[in-house]
Design goal:
Layout (H helix, E strand, L loop, with lengths): L1 H62 E3 L16 E3 L12 H11 L5 E2 H12 L5 H13 L3 E4 L2 E4 L5 H8 L3 H9 L1
Antiparallel strand pairs: 1-2, 3-5, 4-5
């Protein structure tokens, strides 16, 4: 019996040391992970700040310069940290909404009744960049629900461009299909 106890005692001691070591390793690992998370958060904050500073630098260099900067600009006394806007650079026009572009396209379309593809072409030309078809269809549905456009199959028209007779007919759903069915 004594021999068995002598054999178990060192084994038990080694096992306890290993458990304590694993516990210490896991605690240290958790601590390091926590520190890394903090560093990542701080890095994200610094990257965001850097992006803001880049934007501010671009804006100031494009549209004006800060009073008191080292560029040699000496104008009338102005409050510090105020930006003097240069008159020789026009501000870019604001982006128009897809709704405004679609309404404008329907007004400018050569035909009263126009399909979505033609509306997209006119709106894209007006904007100077492509207006996605995925935004044209929902906009047309919204304009129809607001009563600004009428639909006839795959074609739509601005209600203000329609005559009274056409407006009445377009309020009926699929009126052309009804007429062709009656003709047969």
């Amino acid at each position: 019996m004594i021999k068995l106890a002598e054999w178990i005692k060192p084994w038990y001691k080694r096992a306890m040391e290993q458990v304590l070591s694993l516990s210490a390793i896991r605690k240290r690992k958790a601590s390091v992970s926590h520190e890394i998370d903090g560093v990542r958060r701080r890095l994200g904050e610094l990257q965001s700040l850097l992006a803001d500073l880049d934007s501010a630098e671009e804006l100031v260099s494009k549209f004006g310069q800060s009073v008191g900067d080292d560029s040699g600009h000496h104008g009338a006394p102005v409050m510090p940290n105020v930006i003097e806007v240069r008159d020789d650079i026009p501000f870019p026009p604001p982006k128009r909404s897809v709704r405004d572009l679609v309404l404008e396209a329907l007004k400018d379309a050569p035909a009263v009744w126009t399909d979505a593809t033609e509306i997209q072409k006119i709106a894209s030309a007006s904007r100077g960049s492509e207006v996605p078809m995925g935004s044209i269809s929902p906009t047309l549905s919204l304009l129809k629900s607001e009563g600004l456009v009428s639909r006839n199959g795959m074609k739509v028209a601005l209600r203000e461009r329609l005559g009274d007779f056409e407006r009445t007919l377009s309020d009926r759903t699929d009126y052309r299909e009804d007429e062709t069915a009656a003709d047969q």
